[in-house]
Amino acid sequence: MKLSYSGASPYVRKAMICAILRGIDGQFTDLGLRTTNPALAALNPLAKIPTLVLDDGTVLYDSPVICEYLDSLGTAPKLFPPPGPARWKALQLQALGDGILDASQPRRREIALPQDEGRREYIATQRGKVERAVEALEAEAEQLGELTTIGEITIACALGYLDFRYPDEAWREGHPKLAAWYAKVLALPAMAKTMPVG
Ligand SMILES: N[C@@H](CCC(=O)N[C@@H](CS)C(=O)NCC(=O)O)C(=O)O
Predict the structure, then answer these.
(1) Domain ranges in the chain?
(2) Which pLDDT value is given to residue 143?
(3) Whole-angstrom distance, CA of residue 159 vs CA of residue 182
(4) Tell me: domain 85-188, CATH 1.20.1050.10, correct?
(5) Candidate from 6, 37, 48 with most ligand 1 atoms within 8 A of CB, to mutate
(6) What pLDDT score does 128 carry?
(7) Cis peptide before 50 (omega within 30 of 0)
(8) For each successive 10 residues of the chain (198 residues), what is the average pLDDT?
(9) What CATH number belongs to 2-70?
(10) What is the pTM of this model?
(11) Under 8 Å between Cβ of 99 and 159
(12) Considering only CA atoms, which residue is closest to atom 14 of ligand 1?
């Protein structure tokens, strides 16, 4: 399998953590294509990272699809529960974590550009999404497991991304339960092995 890889991408990190927890992380090679490379757009019209190319040439994207595919390999306990309340919960948490990332990743570009009213409003709106998501997570932090489903994996990647790119936004303030949960998962080998770089 070949994966379009970036050590800074939280979406790639989700896939790498799934692969580690499934015991199949040794099966990847780097596709070596950046988002600006037309060869990536030829594989994935959205030209996004991660994109996974299987040995038979099948192309899979985006991170939820790739993670669920990885969950079909190997013999370790499943990260995507079967249909039922546990699955809806895991997918909802994944959506919340991905939403934090979707509201944070493109925002960096906007912050770096000259500021006008429209841009300031966009940045504030996106930041509001993150703040509300963190508030919602604080309310359920005591029910979160330790990277047992794609839900917790995605939340951990999202909080890790906030630390990586927005250290001044101090998401832990006022959210002690979520901070305590994150401190526990951060110590797990799959998190330690995939710390963001770049
Ligand atoms: N929904 C996608 C988001 C992936 C994504 O936005 N990746 C970033 C890199 S971290 C990217 O490729 N950005 C380039 C672009 O949006 O053109 C997923 O979950 O995989």
Answers:
(1) 2-70, 85-188
(2) 96
(3) 8
(4) yes
(5) 48
(6) 97
(7) yes
(8) 95 97 93 94 97 98 98 94 98 98 94 93 96 98 96 98 96 98 97 96
(9) 3.40.30.10
(10) 0.97
(11) no
(12) 48
